[in-house]
Design brief:
about 20% strand, binds ligand TSJ, single chain, Ribosomal Protein S5, domain 2, Heat Shock Protein 90, 3 domains, eight-stranded mixed beta sheet, alpha+beta, six-stranded mixed beta sheet, 21 helices, Rossmann fold
Length: about 650
């Protein structure tokens, strides 16, 4: 008897009358349609994509059980989605208690608890996907086909209700088994009904990394040219770490991999340091990401801190007089995946995303401590490299603390000492104020002349700003451009960050409209993202959009912000010899008046707000590290795709 069926039976009131049961089923699914958010989180794009994951997770469970090796997900031309697996096929026999086929139980009976509800019930990440009935309830129509015992069974639902009873519609080869589900999201429930290929791609790639040897194919058949991507990783999370470090320089060749089981907690850990200074540690429970961590992450951190300190002391890499390495020191430049599988995960915290099971902490701690100790003994060269990097981190941390204490003391004594290069605005109400961060002194000069003094402040920065992904904290704090920004904004950084102290409602990054300018913008965004992420999250950060072209004709002037726009203006005014077209290579080529008119005047300019939602956050981390890595290609790609993180706002 399957877990699915068990669960269903436990939650099914049996009173012997099919009719009464039927009513209860419909009431259950009606509850899902009334409050979809309780079951899939939201009815926005995020909830829409969740439908796919709910279905795919069932096939992944079949893979974890050892019966399925391939899953295919297709976005069909009509925007419905088909998921096919080669598992055993959902059981079709009559479920005794419910009196209906087991597959119908799966699709019509609401299983224990909503995944996103509060309260005492299980929240997300049950080892078994239980969301098929939720997807059914939220679909215009849904069809399931099951290949089993040389037969193809089919059943169809509309808005959760059976409209075609389960029947055999075809025969198939005896060794062809599996499940196919196609569903059309209900457009009266979802605000967004168009699936995004990249969103599905990222999640399915992640699922493939987390499920060794499972092949997942994603197809998009909506366009003229069908698109197809295959994810299949023999190395599982080991390959995940290699992928995350793909644009970095690894500190050593091996990806360390530990695996074990204790107290029914299955633990898998893969890790490798790179030569950067940032930590990229991602944790998962039952293949679901836990951005807020929890006991499994704590177990991992405890284990590596203890193990590396023991090793460093025993091998005299750390002198008796020296302090212990902190967890932060050891995790500098560390990329790691922690994946646990657990029968009954308990989630805690405000958003119920933090793992609470204490046995997970013990299990991860034990598996990592034991196997890492053994690895370090066997691989002294790698051990020494990691310890040396951690000791450098420890020293830098000390130096940074001293530097920071110094700046803190200064501001305490002298009040806020604003940077000399800042041309501040006169209005003291932050709500009315904005600051332009301008690339280059000459453009800074024009901007100072052009601005509206009352509400617009100008901070010119010289050349490229420091890449915070490639520098240690002590160097970052010593950098003049960075110090100028921190003091101008007024909020402080990291733990000291206080948005109430923000001196400007809008922080506007204004750079040349070329590749260098884009690079400077991204360096700036990286700095903000790493040091003051709430500024981005709360929508205070903008990019200015300077024009690319100026067109003069018969004493009239037009500005074009893209090649397309130039073309459409030319079509309108006629293409002839009277056209004078100037291509702006930089902000510096515009005089103050032009700069005001095209880029700074709140009445006429176009700003792009830099946005970041939770979903993006984990992805953006990967994107930023990609961008800031050593290899040029991924970086160029990012700049071209940069628009994705930026919403156009007409102000
Ligand atoms: F449920 C569902 F609709 F979401 C869904 C389930 C969707 C898709 C695409 C696949 C599946 C699914 C379910 N694939 N494989 C299974 N396996 C079972 O349901 C199954 C089969 C046999 C036994 C057994 O004990 O013999 C147990 C189970 C759970």
């Amino acid at each position: 008897m399957s877990e699915e069926q068990n669960l269903a039976e436990e939650n099914f009131e049996v009173d012997g009358e099919y009719g009464a049961d039927q009513i209860q089923i419909l009431e259950g699914l009606e509850a899902v349609r009334k409050r979809p958010g309780m079951y899939i989180g939201s009815t926005s794009a995020r909830g829409l994509h969740h439908l796919v994951y709910e279905i795919v997770d069932n096939s992944v469970d079949e893979a974890l059980a050892g019966y399925c090796s391939a899953i295919e997900v297709t976005i069909n031309p009509d925007n419905s989605v088909t998921v096919v697996d080669n598992g055993r096929g959902i059981p079709v026999g009559i479920n005794k208690k419910a009196g209906i086929p087991a597959v119908e139980v799966v699709f019509t009976i609401l299983h224990a608890g909503g995944k996103f509800g509060g309260g005492g019930y299980k929240v997300s990440g049950g080892l078994h996907g239980v969301g098929a009935s939720v997807v059914n309830a939220l679909s215009n129509w849904l069809e399931v086909r099951i290949r089993q015992d040389s037969k193809v069974y089919m059943q169809r639902y509309e808005r959760g209700k059976v409209v075609k009873k389960l029947e055999v519609i075809d025969s198939c080869s005896p060794d062809d088994t599996g499940t196919t589900v196609t569903f059309m999201p209900d457009d009266t429930i979802f605000e967004e009904t168009v699936f995004d290929f990249d969103t599905l791609k990222t999640r399915l790639r992640e699922t493939a990394f987390l499920t060794k040897n499972l092949k997942i194919v994603l197809k998009d058949e909506r366009g003229e040219e069908p698109v197809e991507r295959t994810f299949h990783y023999e190395g599982g999370i080991k390959e995940f770490v290699t992928y995350l470090n793909r644009s970095k320089t690894a500190l050593y060749e091996d990806v360390l991999y530990f695996e074990g089981k204790q107290n029914n907690v299955l633990v898998e850990v893969a890790m490798q340091h790179n030569d950067s200074f940032n930590e990229s540690v991602f944790s998962f429970v039952n293949n679901i990401t836990t951005p807020e961590g929890g006991t499994h992450l704590t177990g991992f951190r405890n284990a590596i801190t203890k193990t590396f300190n023991d090793y460093a002391r025993t091998n005299k890499l750390l002198k008796d007089s020296e302090a212990n390495l902190t967890g932060d020191d050891i995790r500098e430049g560390l990329t790691a995946i922690i994946s646990v599988k657990i029968e009954e995960p308990q989630f805690e915290g405000q958003t119920k995303q933090k793992l609470g099971n204490s046995e997970a902490r013990a299990a991860v701690d034990m598996v990592v401590s034991e196997q890492l100790t053994y690895y370090l003994e066997q691989n002294p060269t790698v051990a020494k490299l990691i310890c040396e990097k951690s000791i450098l981190a420890q020293r830098a941390r000390e130096a940074a603390r001293k530097a920071r204490d110094l700046t803190r003391r200064k501001t305490a004594l002298e009040g806020l000492a604003l940077p000399g290069k800042l041309a501040d605005c006169s209005d003291k109400d932050p709500k009315n104020c904005e600051i332009f961060i301008v690339e280059g002194d000459s453009a800074g000069g024009s901007a100072k002349t052009a601005r509206s003094r009352a509400t617009q402040a100008i901070l010119p920065l010289r050349g490229k700003i420091l890449n915070v992904e490639k520098a240690r904290l002590d160097k970052i704090y010593a950098n003049a451009e960075i110090k100028a920004m921190i003091t101008a904004f007024g909020t402080g950084i990291h733990d000291d960050f206080d948005i109430e102290k923000l001196r400007y409602d809008k922080i506007i990054i204004m750079t040349d409209a070329d590749v260098d300018g884009a690079h400077i913008s991204t360096l700036m965004l990286t700095f903000l993202y790493r040091f003051m992420p709430d500024l981005i999250k709360e929508g205070h950060v903008y990019l200015a959009n300077p024009p690319l072209y100026k067109l003069e004709k018969n004493k009239k002037v037009w500005y074009a912000y893209s090649d397309e726009e130039l073309n459409s203006i030319l079509t309108e005014v006629g293409r002839d010899q009277n056209n004078k077209i100037q291509r702006y290579k930089g902000l510096g080529e515009m005089d103050a008046e032009q700069l005001w008119e095209t880029t700074m005047d709140p009445e006429t300019r176009v700003l792009s707000r830099v946005s970041m939602n939770e979903e993006m956050e984990s992805q953006i981390d990967l994107t930023f590290t990609t961008l800031m890595g050593d290899k040029v290609e991924p970086r160029r790609e990012f700049i071209e795709e940069n628009a994705k993180f930026v919403k156009n706002l007409d102000i």
